[in-house]
Amino acid sequence: MTTGIEKQFGHELTSFFVLILLNLAFGALVMAIGLQVIITSVLAMAGGQTSDVLQVIRVAIGMAGVVLGSFWLHSSAKIIRGLKAIRKEYKNRTTPVSDDTVTGWIVEMMAHYRQNRSTIRWMTIICSLGGCTYLALGIVNIVQGIFAIVSPGGMVMLGISFLAAGINLSIGIVTLLFSTWFHKYSASWDCRLAEASQAENSLRNAMGQG
Amino acid sequence: MSGRRSTFEIYWEILVFCKTPKFFTGIINRCDLNSKTGQEYLGLLVGKGYLSVIKEGEKTTYAATEKAAESIALFSRLYQSLFDEIPGFKL
Fold this sequence. Notes:
The structure holds 2 protein chains of 2 kinds. Chain A is an all-alpha fold. Chain A is about 90% helix and about 0% strand. In chain A, helix 3 (about 100-150) runs antiparallel to helix 4. By secondary structure, chain B is α+β, with helices and mostly antiparallel strands. Chain B has a single domain (about 5-80), classed as Arc Repressor Mutant, subunit A. Chain B contains 4 helices and 3 strands; from the N terminus they run H-E-H-H-E-E-H. The model of chain B has no long low-confidence stretch (mean pLDDT about 90).
């Protein structure tokens, strides 16, 4: 039984670690793109290109991206800190793994989840907001491209706008996917926490604590 | 081990660590407890017969009893069933 649980634990740990790493990278990317959007919009406003209203919307969306990105980075870094220690223990395990060692990992993951539960919930919200922000940016890019057709050199602008839209929409979709994964992770661990508190009742009875 | 643990998780950690006799300082360091809470946990486990106090001269160590082995096994079974029965997370 322990070997199966050990493998399952390893798969879950790796999956969650990869999710947090990807999330960390995306947080940085979102922040960088947000900054880039602000800079290009401000430059375009100074140069008098396209409508000012559209640029103001882009600056606002870019700023939202920067703020979300910084929350994103901070939260991911917080989660990864505790996870690294558990992962190190798991990687340095010597086989055959004892029952106590496997239970110890489960206890550690449980403690890690309890400690980071609110952060993980925030990550779900941040990823949803981030995803929507980037989908919105992508749509703005498409609208910009369509408006650019009528202006001189419009086809080049159309190409650039559609390329930017492609990037932003891709980030948006992946980010919404992250949100779904975080939700799945939370659902699984919330269920385990609920079961663990029931298990504690059995332990309380067995240990004669009332 | 740190983070937010339940009381029973801390009991389990202490009992597993004390499978071989351990000093008080070693226990609180390993289980990430402060001196006051460490005393409380050990007092309770000694009182319930899960830990025995071994005194050799001025040295005092704590060791898990046979009664503790049953609780450790029950705890492991219950906690491992959380992984066995609940569908896990996969990317």
